Amino acid sequence: MWVNGMSLGKQLKKSNLKIVIIGFGSIGSKHYCYLKNRPEVEKIAILSSRSKDELPDIKLDTFKDVKKFDPDIFFICNQTSKHESELSRIEKNFSNRVILIEKPLSNKLINLDIYKQNRYFVGYNLRYHPLIDFLKNDIELSGFVKAEISAQTDLRKWRNTDYKSSYSAKSIEGGGVALDLSHEVDYCRYLFGDLDKIFSEKRKISNLEIDSEDQFSLIAKVSNEESLLNFNFSYFSQKEERTIKIYFNDRLIHCDLIKSSIIEVKNGQEKMIELAAYVQEGTLEKQFVDIISSDIPKAATISDGQKVLELVL
Question: Has this prediction a pTM greater than 0.70?
Fold first, then answer.
């Protein structure tokens, strides 16, 4: 049995792995790109409605095919609104497997009590961003007064399809900026600990042709402390921004996740720290290696994913 990322019984095999990717859109294909070259991986199959000619590897048509393939690891990469049903049928038919659910966990809160037979993670790969890793391991963050977290993007520039037809544009499929950019909420929980929601607001305010929200604000506090966090996300910015400003009584730490750099301001002096560049595929691969090789990996567990939903829904 696996509970919250900790092993309680049979250990996962770490070589000759058989993997199933469920859904083969943008993120599914990115996982495939590194998995095909991993020495631990023996076979990859894809459960998708796409034709065989559109897929680079073994195509599975039904869940019966999945059961016959008998994978060691599942990647759930389809629409957010379908995640819970995929989890349910995996839990009913498999045990002692690893399941990575692409973020977010779902578009609604789920009953975690029924997921006991496998090891479940949520794909919040920004935990492996060089800047987040540096903040976690090399900066003393306790005692901060407030943090301002900004994630501004332009939905029209995402993916290679018309944004109006993407799941991000459709509330019913789990779209919306709050869920799409919930990485920020997860990495703040990872850095600072559990958070309590004070206020949140979702709005549709731009001229984007979508029915999901394009603006999200959240104010939270660190549990049992007074430190505040102010989150602001949008889908309609002409300039990409992913920053976190951490205010202390005696200094400011200004982090830019896109540039992978930190400016520390203290007593009127600025100190620049430049870190390794962020490469999405690299963090996805690090996440995979961590999950299969560590007894207690730093990857987000299904419980972490649920707590993020509690803050953004």
Answer: yes
**Contact (Cβ atoms closer than 8 angstroms) between residue 142 and residue 179:** no
CB burial of residue 206 (10 Å; 0-12, 13-18, 19+): middle
Amino acid at 87: L
Query: What does the domain layout of the chain look like in residue ranges?
Result: 2-124+282-300, 130-277
Residue 23 half-sphere exposure toward CB, CA atoms < 13 A? 19
| Spatial separation of the C-alpha atoms in residues 301 and 313, rounded to whole Å | 18
Q: What angle do CA 295, 279, 166 make, to 5 degrees?
A: 100
Strands 300-301 and 269-274: unpaired
Q: Give the DSSP letter string of 57-124.
A: SEEE-SHHHHHHH--SEEEE-S-GGGHHHHHHHHHHH--S-EEEEESSS-SS---GGG--SSEEEEE-
CA distance 81 to 104: 10
Residue 58, φ and ψ in degrees, nearest 5: -55, 130
* Size of the chain in residues: 313
List, for residues 256-295, the tens digit of each pLDDT value: 999 999 999 999 999 999 999 999 999 999 999 999 998 8
Q: Out of 3.40.50.720, 3.40.50.12280, 3.40.220.10, 3.40.1180.10, select the CATH number for domain 2-124+282-300.
A: 3.40.50.720
